[in-house]
Every structure is written in structure tokens, then in C-alpha cells.
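[agent] plan:
  1. take the single chain provided in the ticket
  2. run structure prediction with default settings
  3. attach C-alpha cells to the ticket
  4. add a short note for the reviewer (M.T.)
[agent] executing step 1
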Amino acid sequence: MELFGFDKDTLLDLTVNVIPLGIILFFIAAFAVVNPFGFDAVFSGLQFSLMVSMFLLLAVLTYYAGKAIEGAEEAADHAAIEEPNATTGTLDDEESQDGELAGEDDELPEA
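[agent] step 2 finished; step 3 output follows
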């Protein structure tokens, strides 16, 4: 399932921003229908401009965050696909030249 060019996992990551977008949209609609503070052109205009600008800024931020997540996932996929070394038949990053594992630290001091 793709929505706005994002896959399912990316959309799940973006729900952090989609929920506040829904809340802001709810308040825009609520204040447009029920105006508890009365209508004044200056104050109502300021109120709606603040809410709409925050909605638009968060929507743009969410879109670019989704693009960044997609790019990072693609980079991780490409980094995971490596060809084995022709002479040893293993991946180069699995072992260092000393024969130790790449992420293995030296001995830890005993407590």
C-alpha cells in the first residue's frame, strides 16, 4: 500500500506527525463551525492564520521527513547487499585483517 509515494513502514513512522495534523484540522473545523469567542475580523483572522500556518508547516515537515526516511531505508538496503570477497568467499566487513570480528572490543577489565 503506497500513499503519497511512501510505503507502509514509512507511513507508520509518520503517524507521529499525522496525529497532530488531525488535531489541528479538528480545531480549525471546530472554530469555523462553533465560534465561542465571537467574530472579530482581526482576532479571528489571526487565530485562523496561526492554525492554518502551523498545519501547513507541519504537513511540509512531515512530507520531507518521509522522503528522508525513504532515502535512509534505501541506503540501508543498498549497504546490506554486498558481494563476497572472491578469494575467501566471505564478506570483507565480517572479519578484520587480524581475524577478529569487526565490532569486537579488547578485553574488558575485571571488576
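[agent] step 4 note for reviewer: The radius of gyration is 26 Å.
[agent] ticket updated
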